[in-house]
Automatic annotation (TrEMBL), chains A, B:
Catalytic activity: 5-phospho-alpha-D-ribose 1-diphosphate + nicotinate + ATP + H2O = nicotinate beta-D-ribonucleotide + ADP + phosphate + diphosphate
Family note: Belongs to the NAPRTase family.
Protein purpose: Catalyzes the first step in the biosynthesis of NAD from nicotinic acid, the ATP-dependent synthesis of beta-nicotinate D-ribonucleotide from nicotinate and 5-phospho-D-ribose 1-phosphate.
GO molecular function, one term: nicotinate phosphoribosyltransferase activity
The protein, known as: Nicotinate phosphoribosyltransferase
Keywords: Glycosyltransferase, Ligase, Phosphoprotein, Pyridine nucleotide biosynthesis, Transferase
Organism: Streptomyces castrisilvae
NCBIfam families: NAPRTase_put, PRK09243.1-5, PRK12484.1
Pathway: Cofactor biosynthesis; NAD(+) biosynthesis; nicotinate D-ribonucleotide from nicotinate: step 1/1
Lineage: Bacteria, Bacillati, Actinomycetota, Actinomycetes, Kitasatosporales
Top-level EC class: ligase
Region ranges (Disordered): 344-367
Amino acid sequence: MNSADLGRRVGVPSTALFTDQYELTMVQAALKAGTADRRSVFEAFTRRLPEGRRYGVVAGTGRVLDAVENFHFEDEMLGFLRDQDVVDGPTLDYLADYRFSGDIWGYPEGEVYFPGSPVLRVEGSFAECVLLETVILSILNHDSAIAAAASRMSAAAGGRGLIEMGARRTHELSAVASSRAAYIGGFDTTSDLAAGFRYNIPTVGTSAHAFTLLHDSERDAFRAQVDSLGRGTTLLVDTYDVTEAVRTAVEIAGPELGAVRIDSGDLLLVAHRVRQQLDELGATETRIVVTSDLDEYAIASLAAAPVDAYGVGTQLVTGSGQPTCSMVYKLVARAASADPADELRPVAKKSMGSKSSKGGRKWAARRRDEEGVAEAEVIGTGPVPDELAGQQLLVELVKGGEVVAREPLDEARERHIAARAGLPMSAMQLSRGEPVLPTEYV
Amino acid sequence: MNSADLGRRVGVPSTALFTDQYELTMVQAALKAGTADRRSVFEAFTRRLPEGRRYGVVAGTGRVLDAVENFHFEDEMLGFLRDQDVVDGPTLDYLADYRFSGDIWGYPEGEVYFPGSPVLRVEGSFAECVLLETVILSILNHDSAIAAAASRMSAAAGGRGLIEMGARRTHELSAVASSRAAYIGGFDTTSDLAAGFRYNIPTVGTSAHAFTLLHDSERDAFRAQVDSLGRGTTLLVDTYDVTEAVRTAVEIAGPELGAVRIDSGDLLLVAHRVRQQLDELGATETRIVVTSDLDEYAIASLAAAPVDAYGVGTQLVTGSGQPTCSMVYKLVARAASADPADELRPVAKKSMGSKSSKGGRKWAARRRDEEGVAEAEVIGTGPVPDELAGQQLLVELVKGGEVVAREPLDEARERHIAARAGLPMSAMQLSRGEPVLPTEYV
């Protein structure tokens, strides 16, 4: 079972095979070499934000906690690994007993991050930490990409309603995680019932063209919908002629009509025309919902249009051009043994190109000016300077294998709004630019 | 349970909530209006290929069949829908009994498609068909996007090995579906153990930088790996200095060393240097595997390099710039009742912009020239011309609610290779262009 962020508990399968094969073979080789239990520190971080983006958004942390709890090798899985000769007998024995028993610290969900930010820090034996690499990265890379797009869209929407409706554009479970990430990034509702079920995200629905086409006339369709769902429903008005549809809609539902949805055409122009028509018909409270390949730029371009809510699909669930983050999970320090007294030594790859990384177990803090506006992401491996002690970003998530930091999803959402508000104003620009905070290593 | 394409059977949860709320509210309104049982035909198709792409690849069909079989509302789900007032009592009763009882025809998995191709045709009552919209589109849009990218990469690789290793860059279950789609598109193996478990796709693994950094020297790391995994293993040689690493690798494993992996730097240059060094050391059979943000263009640019296999991650699982297809699921025909004798009438949206679609229940065939090379995708709603009767593309997948077209995944993979080979040569060009076949409506 997973926590579902304190929503409904959902039976989930073990996450242990969401793992690249090399993690298991590395464990095998390390077990044989006697190095598998060396005390190790892994960190998840990104070397760069997607091009032009000003900040990243941490999302997926709650799902990572579920994944770590559910990471255990069931008999059938062990049988598969045996049958396929993936690993040897001693390794199968190790895996059969596997439960993560280490510590995890990380940026709390909804927090913003920058290049180098140690978004997650995993400590334990080499073997127990390395096995979690793929599933941790899958979750953080996916969910953070969606949350980052959602955050830009919610900044562009400036308080108007945002409906996540991208389920049909991505893998069915990726869709559920996307709803969750979008909610953290500032969306209000989702059309995805599984996201409502699993995470208590408010669900909403309108109507599809198929419903109009099923009936002998648009009038029949509207009447059927209003009869069953009430006057507060949202009628889709662009199956045939919008002006006629709006007239029919108000005729049937009266001025109490909840909303109309426009899904095609020049949304700016049509929204103005429809608003004027609705007002003339006395339906001054009827809301206008627009959908149709919206992204943050389209949302921003509709700022002056009489739109009450945006429904966003494709561009949200594909991260608005950036469907994944480039977070990596690297060994940054390790001891020569399992002995807690044995010193942790920083390690880092030193090879060609831009793939180098900084060794050492890191802390991170956000330095702020007198007004409380963030100035820099400060990252270090030594002692934390006194003036930054109160601004530290990592929080304890797992202690000795036990999850210690469950929270309702709304807390992550509120945290994100606050974190974004604490950034310099230029964070909200949609145009391409550098990360809005510099990363300083001390 | 799902079929797992005749691989291991995997317990999967019901797919019934992978559904947009409006599908349920439309069912409610149609039930009340007495139109829910009108005989209906829905089709999944795309109005356009991603910009510049020459062909699409159908993938996900096997998963769609699983999803349809597993689409049933469990008590807990019905309780959720009741608690949240999503639908009324009669609708809950309808959903409680829901099992798809209609027919599904479609392009077989691995087949190529073009704008307008009726990739899937779903027939039954309005209510039973409309409920499947979201989950069908989620699967087809995701899986076909990945398969299309995989197909371009496999064309570029020209017979060299292709390893799918993108799990860490996408949602953990999207990753499993991506491995499956990549295999259909021409990939040979995957690093994702869940994909091996679920779909019998051959799994492989190399080693990570963390393994080298865990040990006191690269030499210790290589020795540990070879001791445990044998000389046939793949050693990662770019943690420190490549030349030194290759020397150490052959010293430890001997010329029987299976492969070396290069994950950074100028792959073209480094591969040449490493090949020369390996040959000089007598390791003429040792293979070179390259990884590091490869896409179809990078693969093509390495055609002249002494590379034996490509490991592809990010760009594969994100569809190489096109992470989703734009397939839609539209009501194209319906009768005025449930009576099979009642005539099916074509229906279509007629609104603004490019979102119009063609009404009518469709067949599709691929016209070929005397050499058997495809010339056109022919789509019609009337009788099939005699000369095209043998070239029809849709096959029966579900009959009266029963899945009738299970097949092993290898069949879809072989079908794709054959289908692609039957296209005009220009299909294999990586450069942007028009769809390689015109769509003709007759």
